[in-house]
Recover the amino acids of this structure.
Protein backbone atom coordinates (compact mmCIF):
# COMPACT_ATOMS: atom_id res chain seq x y z
CA UNK A 1 0.00 0.00 0.00
CA UNK A 2 2.87 2.35 0.84
CA UNK A 3 4.54 1.54 -2.48
CA UNK A 4 1.49 2.53 -4.55
CA UNK A 5 1.12 5.74 -2.60
CA UNK A 6 4.70 6.70 -3.39
CA UNK A 7 4.10 5.99 -7.07
CA UNK A 8 1.19 8.40 -7.10
CA UNK A 9 3.22 11.14 -5.44
CA UNK A 10 6.40 10.68 -7.47
CA UNK A 11 5.18 9.75 -10.95
CA UNK A 12 3.39 12.70 -12.49
CA UNK A 13 0.03 12.31 -14.17
CA UNK A 14 0.97 15.47 -16.05
CA UNK A 15 3.27 15.86 -19.04
CA UNK A 16 4.06 18.44 -21.67
CA UNK A 17 1.20 17.16 -23.85
CA UNK A 18 -1.38 18.44 -21.33
CA UNK A 19 -2.32 14.97 -20.09
CA UNK A 20 -3.61 14.37 -16.60
CA UNK A 21 -5.06 11.42 -14.77
CA UNK A 22 -8.63 11.20 -13.52
CA UNK A 23 -7.21 10.64 -10.02
CA UNK A 24 -6.10 14.27 -10.09
CA UNK A 25 -9.61 15.42 -10.97
CA UNK A 26 -10.97 13.42 -8.01
CA UNK A 27 -8.52 15.01 -5.58
CA UNK A 28 -9.08 18.51 -7.00
CA UNK A 29 -12.83 18.14 -6.55
CA UNK A 30 -12.41 17.01 -2.92
CA UNK A 31 -9.89 19.79 -2.21
CA UNK A 32 -12.32 22.45 -3.43
CA UNK A 33 -15.30 20.94 -1.60
CA UNK A 34 -13.30 21.21 1.62
CA UNK A 35 -12.31 24.79 0.71
CA UNK A 36 -16.02 25.62 0.46
CA UNK A 37 -16.79 23.87 3.77
CA UNK A 38 -19.18 21.38 2.20
CA UNK A 39 -18.06 18.66 4.59
CA UNK A 40 -17.94 15.13 3.27
CA UNK A 41 -18.89 14.18 -0.28
CA UNK A 42 -21.36 11.39 -0.94
CA UNK A 43 -20.92 8.79 -3.65
CA UNK A 44 -23.50 10.60 -5.81
CA UNK A 45 -21.86 14.01 -5.33
CA UNK A 46 -18.45 12.59 -6.22
CA UNK A 47 -19.82 11.01 -9.40
CA UNK A 48 -21.56 14.19 -10.54
CA UNK A 49 -18.76 16.60 -9.62
CA UNK A 50 -16.05 14.66 -11.43
CA UNK A 51 -18.40 14.16 -14.39
CA UNK A 52 -18.70 17.95 -14.80
CA UNK A 53 -14.91 18.31 -14.64
CA UNK A 54 -14.45 15.64 -17.28
CA UNK A 55 -17.06 16.89 -19.70
CA UNK A 56 -15.76 20.49 -19.51
CA UNK A 57 -12.04 19.64 -19.59
CA UNK A 58 -11.79 20.28 -23.38
CA UNK A 59 -12.28 23.99 -22.61
CA UNK A 60 -8.76 24.00 -21.20
CA UNK A 61 -7.33 21.81 -23.96
CA UNK A 62 -6.60 19.14 -21.41
CA UNK A 63 -6.17 15.69 -22.92
CA UNK A 64 -7.57 13.92 -19.92
CA UNK A 65 -7.87 10.26 -19.11
CA UNK A 66 -11.60 9.66 -19.48
CA UNK A 67 -13.50 7.03 -17.55
CA UNK A 68 -16.62 5.40 -18.99
CA UNK A 69 -19.88 6.96 -17.84
CA UNK A 70 -23.21 5.32 -18.56
CA UNK A 71 -26.63 6.94 -18.69
CA UNK A 72 -28.86 5.67 -15.89
CA UNK A 73 -32.10 6.84 -14.33
CA UNK A 74 -30.11 8.56 -11.61
CA UNK A 75 -27.83 10.38 -14.03
CA UNK A 76 -24.32 9.68 -15.32
CA UNK A 77 -22.58 6.91 -13.38
CA UNK A 78 -19.16 5.30 -13.76
CA UNK A 79 -18.22 2.07 -12.00
CA UNK A 80 -14.70 2.72 -13.28
CA UNK A 81 -14.61 6.07 -11.45
CA UNK A 82 -15.93 4.44 -8.29
CA UNK A 83 -13.09 1.94 -8.44
CA UNK A 84 -10.54 4.75 -8.75
CA UNK A 85 -12.06 6.56 -5.75
CA UNK A 86 -11.77 3.42 -3.63
CA UNK A 87 -8.20 2.89 -4.80
CA UNK A 88 -7.31 6.39 -3.60
CA UNK A 89 -8.97 5.50 -0.29
CA UNK A 90 -6.84 2.34 -0.05
CA UNK A 91 -3.59 4.31 -0.39
CA UNK A 92 -4.66 6.96 2.07
CA UNK A 93 -5.22 9.93 -0.25
CA UNK A 94 -8.96 10.00 0.53
CA UNK A 95 -10.58 9.41 3.91
CA UNK A 96 -13.50 6.98 3.73
CA UNK A 97 -15.78 8.19 6.52
CA UNK A 98 -18.70 5.82 5.93
CA UNK A 99 -19.43 2.92 3.62
CA UNK A 100 -22.34 0.60 2.86
CA UNK A 101 -21.63 -2.29 0.47
CA UNK A 102 -23.79 -2.98 -2.57
CA UNK A 103 -24.72 -1.19 -5.80
CA UNK A 104 -26.99 1.22 -3.94
CA UNK A 105 -24.77 1.48 -0.88
CA UNK A 106 -23.87 4.88 0.50
CA UNK A 107 -20.41 6.31 1.15
CA UNK A 108 -18.86 9.48 2.51
CA UNK A 109 -15.48 10.84 1.41
CA UNK A 110 -13.12 13.73 2.09
CA UNK A 111 -9.57 14.50 1.05
CA UNK A 112 -6.97 13.32 3.57
CA UNK A 113 -3.90 15.18 4.77
CA UNK A 114 -1.86 12.83 2.59
CA UNK A 115 -4.10 13.75 -0.35
CA UNK A 116 -3.47 17.44 0.23
CA UNK A 117 0.26 16.72 0.24
CA UNK A 118 -0.12 14.89 -3.08
CA UNK A 119 -1.76 17.97 -4.63
CA UNK A 120 0.94 20.21 -3.16
CA UNK A 121 3.60 18.12 -4.88
CA UNK A 122 1.83 18.57 -8.21
CA UNK A 123 1.76 22.39 -8.10
CA UNK A 124 4.85 22.90 -10.27
CA UNK A 125 3.85 20.38 -12.91
CA UNK A 126 2.56 21.46 -16.35
CA UNK A 127 -1.14 22.31 -16.65
CA UNK A 128 -1.85 21.81 -12.93
CA UNK A 129 -3.12 25.39 -12.67
CA UNK A 130 -5.62 24.77 -15.48
CA UNK A 131 -7.01 21.66 -13.82
CA UNK A 132 -7.31 23.35 -10.44
CA UNK A 133 -8.91 26.39 -12.06
CA UNK A 134 -11.53 24.29 -13.84
CA UNK A 135 -12.51 22.42 -10.68
CA UNK A 136 -12.53 25.72 -8.73
CA UNK A 137 -14.94 27.39 -11.16
CA UNK A 138 -17.28 24.39 -11.26
CA UNK A 139 -17.34 23.99 -7.48
CA UNK A 140 -17.91 27.74 -7.04
CA UNK A 141 -20.90 27.63 -9.41
CA UNK A 142 -22.37 24.66 -7.57
CA UNK A 143 -21.84 26.53 -4.30
CA UNK A 144 -23.80 29.50 -5.71
CA UNK A 145 -26.71 27.33 -6.87
CA UNK A 146 -26.60 25.15 -3.76
CA UNK A 147 -24.98 21.76 -3.29
CA UNK A 148 -28.44 20.19 -3.01
CA UNK A 149 -29.01 21.15 -6.66
CA UNK A 150 -25.86 19.40 -7.95
CA UNK A 151 -27.67 16.27 -9.11
CA UNK A 152 -30.53 18.23 -10.71
CA UNK A 153 -28.06 20.45 -12.56
CA UNK A 154 -26.15 17.46 -13.94
CA UNK A 155 -29.47 15.98 -15.16
CA UNK A 156 -29.70 19.05 -17.43
CA UNK A 157 -26.21 18.49 -18.89
CA UNK A 158 -27.10 18.22 -22.60
CA UNK A 159 -24.97 15.17 -23.48
CA UNK A 160 -26.65 13.09 -20.78
CA UNK A 161 -30.07 14.72 -21.21
CA UNK A 162 -30.16 13.87 -24.93
CA UNK A 163 -29.70 10.17 -24.15
CA UNK A 164 -32.29 10.35 -21.37
CA UNK A 165 -34.85 12.15 -23.58
CA UNK A 166 -34.38 9.56 -26.31
CA UNK A 167 -34.80 6.73 -23.81
CA UNK A 168 -31.23 5.44 -24.16
CA UNK A 169 -30.36 4.03 -20.76
CA UNK A 170 -27.18 2.10 -19.94
CA UNK A 171 -25.50 3.76 -22.93
CA UNK A 172 -21.95 5.10 -22.87
CA UNK A 173 -21.89 8.90 -22.60
CA UNK A 174 -19.47 10.37 -25.14
CA UNK A 175 -17.22 12.86 -23.37
CA UNK A 176 -14.94 13.47 -26.32
CA UNK A 177 -15.29 15.05 -29.75
CA UNK A 178 -18.53 16.03 -31.46
CA UNK A 179 -20.72 14.06 -29.06
CA UNK A 180 -19.73 16.29 -26.14
CA UNK A 181 -22.65 18.71 -26.39
CA UNK A 182 -21.55 20.77 -23.37
CA UNK A 183 -18.25 21.67 -25.01
CA UNK A 184 -20.08 22.56 -28.22
CA UNK A 185 -22.52 24.82 -26.36
CA UNK A 186 -19.70 26.67 -24.61
CA UNK A 187 -17.96 27.15 -27.95
CA UNK A 188 -21.18 28.67 -29.31
CA UNK A 189 -21.25 31.03 -26.31
CA UNK A 190 -17.69 32.01 -27.17
CA UNK A 191 -18.61 32.83 -30.78
CA UNK A 192 -21.67 34.84 -29.74
CA UNK A 193 -19.68 36.73 -27.09
CA UNK A 194 -17.07 37.77 -29.65
CA UNK A 195 -19.79 38.93 -32.04
CA UNK A 196 -21.73 40.87 -29.43
CA UNK A 197 -18.96 42.42 -27.37
CA UNK A 198 -16.12 42.59 -29.93
CA UNK A 199 -13.69 41.52 -27.25
CA UNK A 200 -10.37 40.07 -28.23
CA UNK A 201 -10.34 37.66 -25.33
CA UNK A 202 -13.26 36.02 -23.56
CA UNK A 203 -12.20 34.25 -20.37
CA UNK A 204 -12.97 30.56 -19.91
CA UNK A 205 -14.44 31.39 -16.52
CA UNK A 206 -17.01 33.77 -18.03
CA UNK A 207 -17.99 31.09 -20.56
CA UNK A 208 -18.45 28.47 -17.82
CA UNK A 209 -20.57 30.94 -15.83
CA UNK A 210 -22.76 31.41 -18.93
CA UNK A 211 -22.93 27.63 -19.33
CA UNK A 212 -24.18 27.17 -15.77
CA UNK A 213 -26.77 29.91 -16.33
CA UNK A 214 -27.90 27.83 -19.31
CA UNK A 215 -28.17 24.72 -17.10
CA UNK A 216 -30.11 26.66 -14.47
CA UNK A 217 -32.56 27.97 -17.10
CA UNK A 218 -32.95 24.45 -18.48
CA UNK A 219 -33.66 23.16 -14.97
CA UNK A 220 -36.30 25.85 -14.42
CA UNK A 221 -37.99 24.94 -17.70
CA UNK A 222 -37.97 21.25 -16.78
CA UNK A 223 -39.70 22.02 -13.49
CA UNK A 224 -42.39 24.07 -15.27
CA UNK A 225 -43.08 21.21 -17.68
CA UNK A 226 -43.77 18.70 -14.90
Amino acid sequence: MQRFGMNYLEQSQFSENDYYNVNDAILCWLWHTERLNWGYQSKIQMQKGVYLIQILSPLYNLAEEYVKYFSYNYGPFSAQLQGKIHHLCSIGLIDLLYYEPGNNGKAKYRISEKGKLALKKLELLPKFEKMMDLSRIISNMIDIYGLDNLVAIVYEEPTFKKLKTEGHFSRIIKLQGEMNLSAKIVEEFNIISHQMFKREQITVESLIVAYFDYLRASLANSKEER
Observations:
- Confidence is low (pLDDT under 50) at residues 1-17.
- Residues 21 and 63 are 9 Å apart (CA to CA).
- Residues 204-225 form the longest helix (22 residues).
